[in-house]
Write a structure and sequence with these properties.
five-stranded mixed β-sheet, 25 helices
């Protein structure tokens, strides 16, 4: 754990002050001699660590909290044989080292008193005030209770609810789990494995999302040692074998210091060793470890502009590895993290990874939300904000992902459903940022579509979304978004519009899936398309009924020349595979009794058959009945080599074939290959083969195929 996490804006710890080793204190000072005369030394360590970050802090309340905690836990022992008071002391010391403010430390000392002693919440409120009482109550609600097989799901569901009200509750919980993991050796091996797996699956991802890297990295190492002992031993041997050798990063660090000093840039250059899991990941990636792979250089400066000045000097005076450059200052990560990442080669060819950040960025990188202090005070005074009647309060430090998580957890029907969804969401270890046209941003999991963006931006108003523009081009709602895309969502003016069932195939976020499913369940007879959905009005049987990306309906049992073996059923052509004659087709019933028709080879067909869904026979009507009365939508993908005027030539070929372009996207070139996706409207399906031949004849185009979106897995 880094001892450099400090109060935002404060300088790093002075070199004259000895660094407190949390692991040593946690395992030796606090858990060593058990005589009561040693306990005041432990609270002294807490006070010293706290004053390092908050020099003017009033320690009186900490002393009173310690006296109450020690007296109430007196006589209680941990399974390891030490007095129980050593546990809240260790947890509080962890938070003090991270720079937590006094209120958090006070609640940390008392976090087990209400659950495990005779102390009541009313006593805590009377002695320490409403804020400390609120935090203690929040942590108490997280403690394990007997829920049978639902124990873990229900515990963590409570944890999220409490965290949503105040992220300091989660800070205490994470520190609590870290100390328990440090002392897990007294447990039976099977219990160690169970606790380690829950820590890996839920708490470590939560620590990552809260930005508390100092806790996350140590938790990772402790879990690694329990779940993968052989790999841990191999990694430990690799690191131990280098002890006593001169670190090759030392020479590069000296060169960097000299370069920055000559440039007049005031900076601190440190060598930052990798933790065990990080070394293991590098070894798995590279196979053979280089001498510089066991650590990274950390350059700390005073201002944001200095970060880019350092970057310029390094890229000028050393050989940069351009593929390793990332700018998390201009586009911070979802967990508040900011830094410049690069890699440079020294004079002898050794490559060093370099992190460049300000002191404040480093504080937040290490301690995350813990470093942000009390979100309910302004300049040290309590914020004048009325407490809502339902007890909920807006936390200005709460990351956007957590707000989304809290929104959908309320809709989860049971603990097991919640648990499965939580783990799936946390498994999304990469998040993208897309930009709105009004200047705002949306944080979404990788693989999210325009449907997810719509619900993230507009909530239930997204039911009326009729389309999107991605980077200025019209796009279908199923279009997957990339990091840095600009998305504009187009909403219908009709407030009664509702989503199409096909949207579920494109939704990746729990919030979107739950909102769509809830609307469809509430309107079983009115699941309409996003274009002109009127869920409260009866569907006209003799008028065309549009669907998302589908053809026009032509009455009950027919749509764009399709007849299905289900009398009087509305028929829609699936937007995922856009079938046209003479494709082999098959239908499936959806909510409301409608039949959606897919191409036989569509991935969605295999998925629905695998789920036991009964197919409905479907066939194309006689060509004579369709002529002049139906038009068709089809999505084509053209792959080509990049060249000037390629787009103009392709659109001219499409127009010559008498097809209208409904939507088009062109992906950025990759290895000189360009991929174009067109949704086209054809007056006659018989013209499709000729259209595809005309597109293939365009110079540079080497393939044109029908688009097929993959079947959803969720």
């Amino acid at each position: 754990m880094s001892a450099e996490a400090a109060n935002p804006g404060a300088p790093l710890r002075k070199r004259g002050r000895a660094r407190i080793d949390l692991r040593r204190l946690g395992r030796v000072a606090l858990l060593g001699p058990v005589s009561r005369d040693r306990l005041p030394d432990a609270i002294g360590h807490v006070a010293e660590a706290h004053r390092a970050h908050h020099p003017d802090a009033d320690l009186t309340i900490l002393s009173r909290a310690y006296v109450l905690a020690e007296s109430s836990h007196r006589g209680q022992m941990r399974k390891s044989g030490e007095p129980y008071i050593t546990h809240p002391l260790a947890v509080t010391l962890i938070l003090a080292e991270l720079g937590a403010e006094t209120t958090t430390l006070t609640a940390s000392l008392l976090h087990d008193t209400v659950e495990d002693t005779e102390v009541t919440l009313d006593q805590v409120r009377e002695e320490f005030g409403e804020e400390v009482c609120y935090l203690v109550d929040g942590v108490t609600k997280l403690e394990k209770v007997d829920y049978g097989t639902a124990a873990e799901p229900e515990t963590f569901r409570k944890m999220l609810v409490a965290t949503g009200n105040d992220v300091r509750v989660m800070s205490i919980k994470l520190a609590d789990r870290l100390h328990n993991m440090r002392t897990l050796g007294v447990m039976r091996p099977e219990k160690q494995v169970r606790i380690a797996k829950v820590t890996r699956d839920v708490l470590i991802p939560l620590a990552e999302r809260l930005g508390v890297q100092a806790l996350k990295t140590e938790l990772e190492d402790l879990v690694f040692a329990i779940l993968h002992p052989e790999e841990y031993a191999r990694t430990q041997a690799l690191i131990s074998a280098r002890e006593g050798e001169r670190d090759p990063l030392t020479r590069i660090a000296d060169s960097v210091r000299s370069t920055l000093r000559d440039a007049g840039i005031s900076a601190e250059v440190l060598i930052r060793p990798r933790h065990f899991v990080s070394v293991h990941r590098v070894r798995m990636k590279r196979g053979e470890m280089r001498g510089t792979d066991f650590g990274r250089l950390l350059v700390l400066v005073g201002e944001d502009a200095d970060c880019y000045a350092v970057l310029g000097e390094l890229h000028t005076c050393f050989t940069p590895v351009i593929s390793e450059f990332k700018d998390f200052i201009a586009a911070p990560k979802f967990n508040l993290y900011q830094s410049l990442h690069t890699a440079v080669a020294g004079s002898e060819g050794a490559v060093a990874e370099v992190l460049i950040r300000t002191h404040r960025m480093h504080t937040v990188a290490e301690a995350g939300v813990v470093a942000l202090g009390n979100p309910y005070t302004q300049d040290g005074a309590p914020a004048q904000q009325p407490e809502p009647a339902d007890g909920e309060r807006a936390d200005p430090t709460r990351p956007g992902w957590l707000s989304r998580l809290l929104d959908w957890q309320e809709s989860a029907t049971d603990s097991d459903t919640f648990w499965a969804t939580l783990r799936a969401d946390l498994a999304q270890d990469r998040e993208i940022t897309v930009f709105r046209t009004d200047g705002g941003t949306l944080g979404l999991p990788a693989g999210a579509s325009c449907v997810d963006a719509a619900y993230a931006q507009y909530g239930d108003e997204a039911h009326g979304c009729i389309g999107a523009r991605v980077n200025g081009r019209l796009a279908t709602l199923g279009t997957a978004l990339n990091d840095g895309d600009t998305v504009q969502l187009l909403l219908a003016h009709d407030a009664s519009s509702g989503p199409s069932p096909e949207w579920l195939d494109h939704a990746r976020t729990p919030a979107a899936r739950i909102a769509i499913s809830r609307w469809l369940d509430a309107h079983p007879d009115g699941a309409q398309a996003p274009h002109r959905g009127r869920p409260d009005a009866p569907r006209p049987q003799a008028q065309p009924a549009e669907d998302s990306g589908a053809g026009r309906g032509r009455g009950a049992g027919r749509a764009a020349g399709v007849v299905v073996d289900l009398p009087d059923a509305p028929v829609r052509l699936a937007g995922c595979c856009t079938p046209v004659p003479p494709d082999t087709i098959v239908g499936f019933t959806v909510r409301g009794g409608a039949v959606t028709v897919h191409r036989e080879e569509c991935p969605a067909v295999a998925r629905m058959r695998g789920a036991g869904r009964a197919a409905v026979g479907a066939r194309w009507d006689d060509p004579g009945d369709r002529s002049g009365t139906a038009d068709y939508k089809v999505t084509l993908v053209a792959e080509s080599f990049g060249r000037p005027r390629l787009l103009a030539d392709l659109t001219e070929a499409i127009a010559t074939a008498d097809a209208a372009i409904v939507a088009a996207t062109v992906e950025p070139p990759s290895e000189q290959v360009v991929r174009h996706t067109y949704t086209l409207q054809l007056p006659d399906a018989a013209g499709l083969p000729g259209l595809m031949r005309a597109m293939r004849d365009v110079p540079g185009v080497y393939d044109v195929s029908r688009a097929q979106q993959p079947a959803a897995t969720g």
